Amino acid sequence: MSEAAIASEAMLSHGQALKVRSLWSDAFHKMVRNRLSVIGIVITALLLFAAIFGPAIAPYSYTRQDLLRPAELPSTDHWLGTDELGRDLFTRILYGARTAVLVAVFSTILSVLLGLIIGTVAGYAGKWADALILRLTDIIMSIPSLLLAAMIAATLKQPIIAWARTVYAQTHWAIFANTTWLDLVIVFGGLSFVSWPAYCRLIRGQILSLREKEYIEAARAVGVPGRLIALRYLLPNGLGPVVVHMTFSLGSAMVLESSLSFLGIGVMPPQASWGNMIQSNIGSWSYRPWLVAVPAVTLAFVTLGINFLGDGLNDALNPRSSKAI
Amino acid sequence: MAKYLVGRLATAMPTLLAVLFITFTLTFISPYDPVRQMLANAPVQNMDTAENIARVRKQYGLDRPFLVQFADYLVKLSQGYMGISINGQRDVWKMISNTLPVSAQLGLAAAILTAILGIPLGSLAALRQNSWVDYTIISTTLVLRSLPVYVLAPLMLVLLVLVLHVMKVPRGWDGILSWKAILPVCLMMLGPLPVVIRQTRQGVLEVLAMDYVRTARSKGLSTRTIIVRHVLRNALIPVVTSFGFITEGLIVSTVFVDTIFAIPGYGSVAGAAFSSFDYPVIMGVTLVGSVMVVATNIIVDLVYPLLDPRVTLA
Known about the structure:
By secondary structure, chain A is mainly α. Helices cover 74% and strands 0% of the residues of chain A. Chain A has helices at residues 3-14, 23-33, 35-57, 89-125, 127-141, 145-171, 180-211, 214-221, 226-263, 274-281, 289-317. At the A-B interface, helix 5, helix 6, helix 9, helix 10 and helix 11 of A face helix 1, helix 6, helix 7, helix 13 and helix 14 of B.
């Protein structure tokens, strides 16, 4: 039965119009009514704006040093002051947003893909493949994720950079001359490796539980083709938790990237990362507090905003959520 | 019980072995060559010739196949030998084990404070569900959950030392009872606290809807008795399952807390190893961290059936 048919039947039985709303428009309405998730949307939008248009709005170059004016307080020339090397702090923060978004988006995409493929295999294959995959996720999840990501980044960094140098020496391709983008690739790898197991389990669980649902069985019984079942029933019902988890993991990927950079194995200076900005100024917090406070507050706001968004999405996409309209 | 314990340990062993395998493989493919390093640092000049390196490598068995070396490593590990650090040539296990007591004190203090604060706050939020008290507690936990230690630590330092002048600069370690430990413990607590508050709130809400709570109420028991005797006892059981997660949080936060406050703990060894690419130490701290998480999970699995009779030891 089509949605319109259901609606008209409902109208007949109740004698009044029943507005049919899809899952997504329903979720959107719930999101907009939740004050915290609106704050989350605004912060996330600002972050994306800074990441995409940062270089265009940045007043200076992110590596330009004004050695006569290091560690200055905010002024009209430098809106957030200058850092310990005389670079414009506002510019560095904007470029840091770019790093954070790049890492968060790419490592999340990579881990969702890995989790989706491996989780689907586990859910459908079952038996020993399922047991093996579950055990593998168990193992990876029992290593503290920061330590594992840090270990992967620390191990792979020098071999990969050495490899890039040899490639450059042989081919003279400009892309291999500068190794700063390789820092990002290594961070993507480390973060994806530690975060795919959570997706894998989530997706496997979704597959196993949805397969048994009556409405899937009913759809199959009335002869809905498999492709349509997947598109109309499995996907909307299974996607919610994955989208929520993705939102949260965007936030935690940013925090992890900053943590790695703080430990000195993530994104290396002169590339801007909020983590390495905090790290390089934490020693001077008592006499140049703003240099550490600015990146710290930025990181705090951004992760907070993303978590608000995640919480809002969680309430909005969960039909059993108590905060029904 | 004993049979269950043996079974649980038997399933934990392959996990630990696999963790060992992963960390060993990563160290194996790392660019660090202990022999070259050793000969380069030797008191006699120009010892690091290719010939010497090959000879010493053979002498230490480092020219053997990967799996043989892995087996050899396992044997040595079972004897408590984790290798020698690159910086300072110290015994890795001694470096870690010397610092563990300090971190254990900090971690335990943080865990106890988390329980003392988290359980009442979580219960309060549940009992005043959907009131401003609930919203305040829940949104505060949401804020705390988002903030990494190295973000909050400098902000707290600026606030407490520079603005409010309530403390001097806390640096170093004078025992857990010293004022210097207050800020580190509070910061370490911030990771696990939101988890405990949320779990307690969820648990209390679920138990409050149970029939036996209504029965207790209709018997005329005081709210206090109902909460302490009937609700909390059952509501807190699920909190136990988050212990593994809490352990991991404490391990990770100690890396930052130790680095920022110059505390000679497990985290300071880990932080220094990561920033100087000291592979044997990196491997050691990762291993010790994973063993702690796996051990906590085993303890949770053992304790859980005792707390909740519905879960059987299967």
